[in-house]
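Researcher: Next entry: Adenylate/guanylate cyclase domain-containing protein (Mesorhizobium wenxiniae).
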Amino acid sequence: MFAGGPWWKGLGASTPGTPSRRNGILAIAVLAVLLVAGLSLLTPWKLVEARAFDYLSTISPPPPPDDGPVIVAIDEPSLAEIGPQWPWPRDLHGRLVEALRRAGAKAVGLDIIFAEPSTPAADEALVKSLGPDVVLAGDETFIETEQAAQHVRVEPLAIFTATSAATGIASIAPDGDGILRRVPGYGDGFAAELLNAAGRPATVPRNALLQAFGPSRTYPTVSYYQALDPDSFLPENFFRGRIVMVGLSLQNAPTLSQGGADVHASPFTIRTGRLVSGVEIQATVFDNLAHQLFIARAPAWAAILSILLGAGISVLAVWKSTGWKTLAGAVVAVLALLAGSYMALRYGRVFVAPLAPALVFTLVASAQAARDFAAERKLRRGITRAFSQYLSPALVERLARDPTQLRLGGEVRTLTILFCDIRGFTTIAEAMKGDPERLTTLINRLLTPLSDVVMAHGGTIDKYIGDCLMAFWNAPLDDPDHAIHAVEASLEMLAALDRLNAQLQAEAETRGETPIALRIGIGVNTGQCVVGNVGSEQRFDYSALGDAVNLASRLEGASKDLGVPLVIGRATAELVSDRIPLTPLREITVKGRGESTMVYAPAAVSAPVSTAAS
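Model: Predicted structure:
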């Protein structure tokens, strides 16, 4: 039945616990870890991880601290009230600083660069308003060309820096995709200098990520013209004890598509599509430094550990098998990795990128699922190819869908065995010795409908032995009614023989020949057998062995002497007697057995019993 060696060997990918499967999974995991570790070093991948930070850091962000900065916005209402011509006279900024100081502001930061002179009177007025509680903005730019690399620092005019006011670098450095995520690393940054002016010095972290508190206009904001006269426009003590930042905050062009003056993309921009003003960015940096709310990047060892964790979870998920549970587990695992990254970010203030471990998990699970799918397809094809000639198509399909029902190594099962032999075959062969092709055709015309009947009743055809057919029920698939199905198949085989004989008689009469009447004998017995692969490593059959098989063969031979076409053993009779009427024949002793056994025949085919049996 199977030739060329066991076809199921080498399918360890689909066999839980086999060394080939384990080694394959571990090899996939190692390759996935190396691949993802290599990807994590590339700039495009880092930008993808940065986008993951954007989404995670903007899920339920903390609100701005209560003592955070207040923003005085140079906005459209102020341009309408004061005048649209920009820049405004510097003595106006001096008036604003004095008004804020009178209103009780603790420190004032002017996010405006005064790098060029205006009128002497206006510049002098601004100088007179400056003090240690004021921070002016500077700028620092790195320009790289093919000819040279330049580091350009722009500071306020000397007349302003000569005062007790501090200068803070307000430059920011967005990532490669244009989104600002990092805390500016300047030790003399605008926010850091403003903290010093307020008496709250803070250490500027290196390579830290900025925690955004919300979209544009999250911070309390008033218009410039209102801050010039707070007694008239604002609640009492609105600025008392507060840090005030002054800067452009125009709303007429705050979108990504339109751009605008001193506006930047923040992590919230991917959610809202709106840009954030530079002065509000500085307020965010201020609170990150003042309250240590910035987010540290996970060290390299933690990133590697997370990748190994993803690989380890995936190995456990596919160690035994893959299927819909693996898919569900993959979804849960990826969500758990995202949740773990979010918890570390929100409560530990550390960003562990979740995409690398999620990707390595997905790669391992997908690759092993593909291996298992291919192995299962190969197993199904092998089963279909091996059993298609011995089982009905429905049973072959059922076995292919669930190969676990097939135990190829051999097992002990209770089977019902059927032997069917052609009576008088030697005489028929002698009569047709001059036409062997006709003899072969005749035998095939008989065995074909008999085989179809066996398979239609769920039987397994074991083998053809010349003019004899052997079949059994209850293997390789379970059949609780195996004895009934075997006897019903036997009765239908006799009916099929009658139909074939009628066809042969009609054909013989048409040709003017003497018709050939075919007869068969059938023996059916039930008992324990060993069923599995029988033969050598090079060639073997799926077959049944045991005393019950031998007795079934002897019963087929005894049917000739008993004068009935179908003989049933005692064990079979006990299983079918309540469904099929039986006639007891007599006790017989068959060759090779020392004890006698009672045999039966279906009432529909019973006949007088002869006096001899062997």
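Model: Note for the record: The first strand starts at residue 2 and ends at 3.
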